[in-house]
Amino acid sequence: MKAALRERGAALGFDLVRVAAPDAIPEAPERLRAWLEAGRHGSMGWMADPDGRRAAPRNLWPEVRSIVMVGVNYGPESDPLAPLAQPDRGTISVYAQGRDYHDVIKGRLKEFAGFLASRAEADVKVFVDTAPVMEKPLAQAAGLGWQGKHTVLVSREFGNWLFLGAIFTTAALPVDPPERDRCGSCRRCLDACPTRAFPAPYQLDARRCISYLTIESKDHVPADLREGIGNRIFGCDDCLAVCPWNKFAVTGREARLAAREDLIAPPLAELVRLDDAAFRKRFAGTPIKRTGRDRFVRNVLIAIGNSRDRRLAKEAIPLLEDPSPLVRAMAVWALSRLLDGRSFSGLAARHAAQETDTNVLGEWQEGAARLAETEHAA
User: Fold this and answer.
1) N or C: at which end does the chain have fewer Cβ atoms within 10 angstroms?
2) Nearest-5° angle of CA 110, CA 116, CA 121?
3) By the 8 A CB rule, do 334 and 302 touch?
4) Which of 151, 149, 203, 155 is nearest to 179 (CA)?
5) CA–CA distance, 201 with 366 (Å, rounded to integer)
């Protein structure tokens, strides 16, 4: 049965197919509890696990007897960190440069689960980041890879570039041996983080993670973390891309996982002009669309502020009147970093007096104070 599963999985485009037992991650409940109690999940309230379903698969589905974990390689064709050297352009995480992986994988996984159900005469449930399932610990237990010091799954065959999916089944399948931790003394991933999101190896504080700040967070980005974001406008690949195990990785092969050219280092000036309709059209079918136009433009404005390119100031000025306070606030912040004190004060005289949002007003005040201090020091 296992051989047939792997053969069918490979035919459907799964690069790895392994099996874990439902009780293979007994340490997960305590680790999750400690992470949540420390508040490191930020605003991701859905990570809370009051009934233990996330940490214990049998609490999610009592009948489950085996968990089939699959991995799909999405290794980039080029250096994902190269766009960081182009401050007038945006850097988008590799996983978001093409079709939404949920759409890519789920259809295949349902077909794969149907094959398993038919062959084993068993019930199945399919999960692709759509239910309280701890995919990475289960993937390690199944032998797909191990969770590195950056908490991301690392594979000997595919480095840091694997999409994961899970099939819960009532079939009793032989399990695969777990993968051992192969990080050794290396800490490149920890040292590469621009916002110092790792308080210790194997621990992530999502509140400082650029992926969380640019994708999950619906709020204003804390001022002390904005500069570290650089021109990363959707996600961050730094900790993944520096891992030495990537040298063994094979780049993504399927056209359905290929990056779209317009999502590789797109011009910030082009992106910041997007209204809601243009945003939806441009990012249809990608993970970026789920974030929404306002949060995305917020991210683009942070990148514009970090660019130090004064030519981009003219792109931020119209957004001082944007309906979204998230956008207005970051337009003010960007302009405070691109303009001189006199120019900034002129804009403040026209716009701050009409502002009603306290966060935006705070950006006007902090920007003016920062510029006055800078010009005084000069």
Assistant:
1) C
2) 125
3) yes
4) 155
5) 35
**Residue 75 has what DSSP assignment?**
-
> With contact defined as beta carbons under 8 Å apart, do 313 and 339 qualify?
yes
Q: What is the pLDDT of residue 51?
A: 67
The CA radius of gyration of the chain, in Å to the nearest whole number, is 23
State which of 151, 169, 187 marks the end of a domain.
169
Buried b (16+ CB within 10 A) or exposed e, 151-173: bbbbbebbbbbbbbbbbbbbbeb
Whether 373 is covered by a domain: the verdict is yes
DSSP letter at 214 equals I
- The answer to whether residue 43 sits within a structural domain is yes
Q: 354: domain range? A: 267-378
Could you tell me which residues are beta bridge partners of residue 117?
Answer: none
Question: Helix, strand or coil for residue 268?
Answer: helix
Number of structural domains, the chain? 2
Considering only CA atoms, which of 98, 107, 91 is closest in space to residue 258? 98
Side chain identity, residue 143: G
pTM for the complete prediction? 0.94
Convert 327-357 to b/e letters by CB count within 10 Å (16 or more is b): bbbbbbbbbbbbbebeebbebbeebbeebee
Model pLDDT, residue 43: 81
Q: What type of residue is 215?
A: I
Q: Does some domain include residue 248?
A: no
- Helix (H) / strand (E) containing 4: helix 2-11
Q: How far is CA 47 from CA 3, 148, 190, 222, 350, in A?
A: 35, 20, 23, 22, 43
Average pLDDT, 10 consecutive residues per value, the chain (378 residues) = 92 96 89 82 73 80 97 92 98 95 90 96 91 91 98 96 96 97 98 98 97 97 98 98 89 62 96 98 96 98 98 98 98 98 96 96 96 75
pLDDT at 62: 95
Task: Give the catalytic positions in this structure.
Answer: 129
Residue 164: what pLDDT? 95
Look at residue 337 in the predicted model and tell me its pLDDT: 97
CA angle 109, 115, 118 (to 5 degrees): 140
Residue 240 lies in a domain: no
CB 208 within 8 A of CB 42: no
